[in-house]
Write a structure and sequence with these properties.
It is a single chain. The chain has five helices and no strands. It has 95 residues and is an all-alpha fold. It has helices at residues 3-25, 31-34, 39-56, 58-74, 83-91. Helix 1 (3-25) crosses helix 5. It has one domain. Helix content is 75%, strand content 0%.
């Protein structure tokens, strides 16, 4: 497995868990209606693309994978707010 693939799979897992678990716990909808099912094939396609790119330019692909993981944590993806916002509202604010 390429080094960039781990970052992409972690980002896809966090985004999916955010929409299925963290957002409903924070009071933002239903897990089955708010989920963006396109995250699953998009994560796989991006992991394959960065794995191929890593054969040509390893440093760039690994850096891009890290940026993808960071952007999933701080930018809202899909219908839910960011995972950090949802976790703060669940654990700190007690919603």
């Amino acid at each position: 497995m390429a080094r960039s693939t781990g970052f992409v799979l972690a980002a896809g897992g966090i985004a999916l868990a955010n929409e299925m678990i963290f957002a409903p716990l924070a009071g933002h909808g239903n897990p089955l209606t708010n989920i963006n099912w396109r995250l699953i094939p998009a994560t796989g396609i991006m992991a394959l693309a960065l794995g191929g790119l890593e054969k040509m330019t390893p440093g760039f692909a690994v850096g891009l994978g890290g940026l993808v993981l960071l952007s999933v944590l701080i930018l809202p993806m899909g219908k839910a707010s960011t995972p950090i916002d949802n976790l703060v509202s669940v654990f700190i604010e007690g919603k």
